[in-house]
């Protein structure tokens, strides 16, 4: 009988502890406005029946300038005379409550929290409802820990930067390379985290790192010194898209500006980016925070200003409200004294942060009497939460290759050789920006639930510097009915401030895979654990390696999910959220080139613009069954309604081949496309339907194709499900020109749905008159 996993044991422990302690632990004292404090309970800012802006204005009016300045940083001071406690703003919840930031700690009644798969893995599910559900669970656990005095309520997650370069160490934190996918992930995860009811927030999320941030430390260039030279076009149709979705659709409470400069200006001191775009164009109702120490970096490392107080003033005037770091606390006073900024500028920054705190209920008195005040230790690491972590891992796993050996059989494959440096890992599975998991099931433990195992790591660590254990691994594969190699990367290879040098497996891992596959008595399956793509062309082309699975970093239940896919308990349905390039792509493309489109000898980036060879394309993913698409309802002609006011004031021609989006009536309804998805195989399965569009030929600045929608649908073997995808010209058929202006090209657009191609003729229409 297989040994019980640490996850199961911890679950039993938590259930026993919860039963023994039915009542909540004593909740934390009120952050402010304690009803037992006779000096402060009647103050205007404590009166919950007043409008938020009135309460905020009253509180700011009671603060001294020195107090205000010490509230501009992440470790905000207490103000005892007003009954306000100190507060640590920095907490993280990228894929579970994390202890990376100083605002959260584990221990006592909160030994751990549910650790979901890393974001890149969850993104591979292409399941919007799952992303929101995970956000709700994470915020339940965050609120519970806040009530127990172990966490804050402001979480600087998610990371929605574009995974532009396959070597980026933090690509694992992102939803991938496609801006539409990243934007949908951002909006849904934020909605789940914040769970807004009216103006009230459950927790406050933060979309980071704005903007064009995707290099940490490559070839002597680090994020602190990097000046990202970005065209208006790439900024508008790639880098800014997820952040706009986060603010406009997700209603996020915060945006974090990044370390790097964009076109010569630090992002945290650029009023066009902060006040102009985030708050002005997109309408952020919240605060803007710096990445940690980035205001200091602006002065100390980038030498953007002559004095530190000038850096402090530039950041505040640009629209920064909160500094993660001490810089504003130290230098803002002198900036005010020198007249570089006024106290009113400080007040405006404070108004944004204090409003968010009030929306969180931090000035509403007793926490236990508020919504979510009943959450406590029994609401963390619950069986339901851990089951969701397992389901998320199952949905995110991608089957890259299958020559027919998968799924394995419990009757024919009774003994499995489990080999590789990632074959029995635990912490590796949760990636970075993680916390303390409820428990783990390693790949070895997961497989052991299905079959007898023979385990050999093959390498002493992920670097795999020697081959002195290869012989033992080969022997294991000779004595097993099937071999599973669990290889890949970990945080020593890809992480924050650690970009990869290349795309191949580290060290001698490839040799280990080759030798074991050659020696194996039965089928050989390669399982890859990584955040970024790996060039495994050798395995793709080797007939002795019959299947390849990418598990990403699958979270605390990753071993169970991998085993469930290997043995067919789960039929894989994940799709790659990023392109897997060959090694020579990385060898000739510098990370520092921010251009998305090809030019000269530069090949471009991501599936939208790169046309060269790939190992596996964006959206690739196989199943144990087969699916067929057919169009049940597909309009062939669509009209773009134009704003009639334009023609009264401007010499505007209907014959224009590309209409500006702002000149169109974009509030018109979408056109539905109905697609039948038929399961033509013998196994029930979940199919991820990806719909792409291509603009008319001749649009030199347009992408090859772009994702416009996706749906995940479960289809029983032999049956059919109909999926509706709404197509709107403004949202889905528009492109961005070289000046950063979004336009809708007229003419014949193509929709790509699997192997299907469908043409749509798009015409401008003014009061029933078509161009």
TrEMBL record:
Molecular function terms from GO: alpha-L-arabinofuranosidase activity; xylan 1,4-beta-xylosidase activity
Subcellular location(s) of the protein: Secreted
InterPro entries the record matches: BXL (IPR044993), Fn3-like (IPR026891), GH (IPR017853), Glyco_hydro_3_C (IPR002772), Glyco_hydro_3_C_sf (IPR036881), Glyco_hydro_3_N (IPR001764), Glyco_hydro_3_N_sf (IPR036962), Ig-like_fold (IPR013783)
Main location as per UniProt: secreted
GO biological process: arabinan catabolic process; xylan catabolic process
Gene Ontology cellular component terms for the protein in this record: apoplast
Name of the protein: Beta-D-xylosidase 4
Family: Belongs to the glycosyl hydrolase 3 family.
PROSITE patterns to which the protein is assigned, alphabetical: PROKAR_LIPOPROTEIN
Organism: Hibiscus syriacus (Rose of Sharon)
Glycoprotein is among the record's keywords: yes
Superkingdom, taxonomy of origin: Eukaryota
Domain spans labelled Fibronectin type III-like: 687-757
Leader sequence residues: 1-27
Keyword list, A-Z: Glycoprotein, Glycosidase, Hydrolase, Secreted, Signal
SUPFAM superfamilies: (Trans)glycosidases, Beta-D-glucan exohydrolase, C-terminal domain
């Amino acid at each position: 009988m297989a040994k019980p996993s640490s996850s199961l044991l911890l679950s039993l422990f938590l259930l026993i502890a919860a039963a023994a302690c039915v009542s909540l632990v004593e909740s934390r004292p009120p952050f402010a406005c304690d009803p037992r404090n006779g000096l402060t309970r009647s103050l205007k800012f404590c009166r919950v029946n007043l409008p938020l802006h009135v309460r905020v204005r009253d509180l700011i009016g009671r603060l001294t300038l020195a107090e205000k300045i010490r509230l501009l940083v992440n470790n905000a001071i207490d103000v005892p005379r007003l009954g306000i406690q100190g507060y640590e703003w920095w907490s993280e919840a990228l894929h579970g409550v994390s202890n990376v930031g100083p605002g959260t700690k584990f221990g006592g009644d909160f030994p751990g929290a549910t650790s979901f798969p890393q974001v890149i893995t969850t993104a591979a599910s292409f399941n919007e409802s799952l992303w929101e559900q995970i956000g709700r669970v994470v915020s339940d656990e965050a609120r519970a820990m806040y009530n127990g005095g172990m966490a804050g309520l402001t979480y600087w997650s998610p990371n929605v930067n574009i995974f532009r370069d396959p070597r980026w160490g933090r690509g694992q934190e992102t939803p991938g390379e496609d801006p539409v996918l990243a934007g949908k992930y951002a909006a849904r995860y934020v909605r789940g985290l914040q769970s807004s009811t009216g103006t009230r927030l459950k927790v406050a999320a933060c979309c980071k790192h704005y903007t064009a941030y995707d290099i940490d430390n490559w070839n002597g260039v680090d994020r602190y010194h990097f000046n990202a030279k970005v065209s208006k076009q790439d900024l508008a149709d790639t880098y800014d898209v997820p952040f706009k979705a986060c603010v406009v659709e997700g209603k996020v409470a915060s945006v974090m500006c990044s370390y790097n400069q964009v076109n010569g200006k630090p992002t945290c001191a650029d009023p066009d980016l902060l006040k102009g775009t985030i708050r002005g164009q997109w309408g952020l109702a919240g605060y803007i925070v710096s990445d940690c120490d980035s205001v200091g970096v602006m002065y100390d490392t980038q030498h953007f200003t002559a004095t530190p107080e000038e850096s402090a003033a530039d950041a505040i005037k640009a629209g920064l409200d909160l500094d993660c770091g001490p810089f504003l606390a130290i230098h803002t006073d002198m900036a005010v004294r020198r007249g570089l900024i006024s106290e009113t500028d400080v007040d405006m920054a404070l108004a944004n942060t204090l409003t968010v705190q009030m929306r969180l209920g931090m000035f509403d008195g007793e926490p236990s009497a508020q919504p979510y005040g009943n959450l406590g230790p029994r609401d963390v690491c619950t069986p339901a939460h851990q089951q969701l972590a397992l389901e998320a891992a199952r949905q995110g796993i991608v089957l890259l290759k299958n020559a027919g050996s998968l799924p394995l059989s419990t009757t024919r494959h009774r003994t499995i050789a489990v080999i590789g440096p990632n074959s029995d890992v635990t912490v590796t599975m949760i990636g970075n920006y993680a916390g303390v998991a409820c428990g783990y099931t390693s790949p070895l433990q997961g497989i052991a639930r299905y079959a007898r195992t023979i385990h050999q790591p093959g390498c002493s660590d992920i670097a795999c510097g020697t081959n002195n254990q290869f012989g033992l691994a080969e022997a294991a594969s000779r004595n097993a009915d099937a071999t599973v190699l669990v290889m890949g990367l970990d945080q020593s290879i890809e992480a924050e401030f650690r970009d990869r040098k290349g795309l191949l497996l580290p060290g001698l891992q490839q040799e280990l895979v080759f030798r074991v596959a050659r020696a194996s008595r039965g089928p050989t399956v390669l399982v890859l654990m990584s955040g970024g793509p790996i060039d495994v062309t050798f395995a793709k082309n080797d007939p002795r390696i019959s299947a390849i699975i990418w598990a990403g970093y699958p979270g605390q239940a990753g071993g169970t999910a991998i085993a469930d896919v290997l043995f067919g308990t789960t039929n894989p349905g994940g799709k790659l959220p990023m392109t897997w390039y060959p090694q020579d792509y990385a060898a000739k493309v510098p990370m520092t080139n921010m251009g998305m489109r090809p030019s000269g000898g530069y090949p471009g980036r991501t599936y939208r613009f790169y046309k060269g060879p790939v190992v596996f394309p964006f959206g690739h993913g196989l199943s144990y069954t087969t699916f067929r698409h057919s169009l049940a309802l597909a309009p062939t002609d669509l009209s773009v309604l134009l704003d009639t006011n334009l023609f009264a004031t401007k010499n505007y021609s209907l014959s224009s081949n590309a209409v500006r989006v702002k000149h169109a009536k974009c509030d018109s309804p979408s056109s539905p496309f109905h697609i039948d998805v038929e399961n033509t195989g013998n196994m029930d399965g979940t199919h991820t339907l990806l719909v792409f569009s291509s603009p008319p030929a001749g649009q030199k600045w347009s992408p090859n194709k772009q994702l416009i929608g996706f749906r995940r649908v479960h289809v029983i073997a032999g049956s059919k499900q109909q999926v509706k995808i709404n197509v709107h010209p403004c949202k889905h058929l528009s492109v961005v020109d070289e000046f950063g202006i979004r336009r809708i090209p007229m003419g014949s657009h193509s929709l790509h749905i699997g192997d299907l191609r469908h043409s749509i003729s798009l015409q401008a229409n003014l009061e029933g008159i078509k161009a």
